Amino acid sequence: MLKIGSVELDVPFVQAALSGYSDLPMRRVARAYGAPYALNEVVLDKLVVQKGKKRKTILQVSEDDHPVGGQLIGANPDDFGPAAAAMAEAGYDVIDINFGCPVRKVLGRCRGGFLLSQPDTALSIVRRVYDAVGGRRPVTVKMRRGMRDDQESERNFFSILDGALDIGVAAVTVHGRTVKQRYVGPSDWTFIARVKHHVGDRIILGSGDLFSAEACVRMMRETGVDGVAIARGCIGNPWMFQECRALYRGEPLPPPPSIGEQRKAIALHFEEAINFYGEARAARNMRKFGIKFSEHHPHAVQVRDAFVRVSTADDFRNVLERWYDPTVDWPPVVRREGHGDLIAAGARP
């Protein structure tokens, strides 16, 4: 069991906040396949308190979407407290602070990963959030291992880490890449292991290069972290949570999802998207998910191209009918050893 403050999870594998992806439909699908906890996509603190449609959407927490974390990003400490309080009142179970986003536009506005170079400001933000909601909601922090790979960045990282824990945060998620790395090069799991050793029994979640259930379990074994936050690896791959559960119980890895199982998951995701966005927007939004789902198909390139061409809900349904017909004798789907990707065995149709 993983405890994040008052939130208890039966397994230590959570869906991370994914900008542009981890909306309510994705979270519901992840939960259907075994995710015990999911975070909403990161939101700008100012949007939470400014009146408008975006605020209304952010503060809608469904009864079946628990436990759920709300992740905040911003630059001004004064904006974080009111935003955190509003999210707690709306029903978010955990308030998470983003000190890890490496996107250039975000860095240019002194948000996200930029704050790893500003320990005083970062800790002021943590203090404002904790003072606003710490008595009623767990507060957590997401960090990368520093702005860049140098001693100053490492000192800043540990200054923020130690200060945040002293303030009272319930858990810290550590991504093993620097901000400057973005998504290039390997995640440094040895650094994550150092962090866990440094904090002792405080809760650390690891992140980075988690593209398979085997990788998730291996990170916990090699680094000693209390849990893992699965990000890009679970986009279009909700089965990953079932696989993590199986390995965690000491059971064999389940077989890769059949065409029928893939269709069922994609159709569920599409239905949830329609219910949330309406047909027109759902079709456009599901293209990016379809592209990721296609990686599991025996004819991944053709299916990816079909999803790319989707512009209407009927287009999406047609892709399912054409490429996910369980009565067709598809080539078998096999898992690439040591990675979460799936590849096909067999010829093109």
Break the fold down into its secondary structure elements and pairings.
Elements: E1 2-4, E2 7-9, E3 13-15, H1 24-32, E4 38-39, E5 43-44, H2 45-49, H3 53-58, E6 68-73, H4 77-90, E7 94-99, H5 104-108, H6 119-133, E8 139-144, H7 151-167, E9 171-175, H8 189-199, E10 203-207, H9 213-223, E11 227-230, H10 239-248, H11 259-277, H12 279-293, H13 300-308, H14 313-323, E12 333-335, E13 342-344
Parallel strand pairs: 3-11, 4-6, 5-6, 6-7, 7-8, 8-9, 9-10, 10-11
Antiparallel strand pairs: 1-2, 12-13
Helix pairs in contact: 1-11, 4-6, 6-7, 9-10, 11-12, 12-13, 12-14
**CATH homologous superfamily classification of the largest domain:** Aldolase class I
CATH architecture descriptor of the largest domain: Alpha-Beta Barrel
- Low-pLDDT segments: 337-349
**Overall 3D form:** globular
Summed over residues and divided by their number, the pLDDT gives a mean of 93
The number of helical runs is 14
Helix/strand/pairing category: alpha/beta
Please give the number of β-strands: 13
CATH topology of the largest domain: TIM Barrel
Strand content: 5-15%
State the helical fraction. 40-55%
The major sheet is characterized as: 9 strands, parallel
Helix-strand topology string: EEEHEEHHEHEHHEHEHEHEHHHHHEE
Rg, Å, rounded:
20 Å
The separation of the N and C termini measures 46 Å
How many discrete structural domains?
A: 2
Give the CATH level 1 class of the largest domain: Alpha Beta
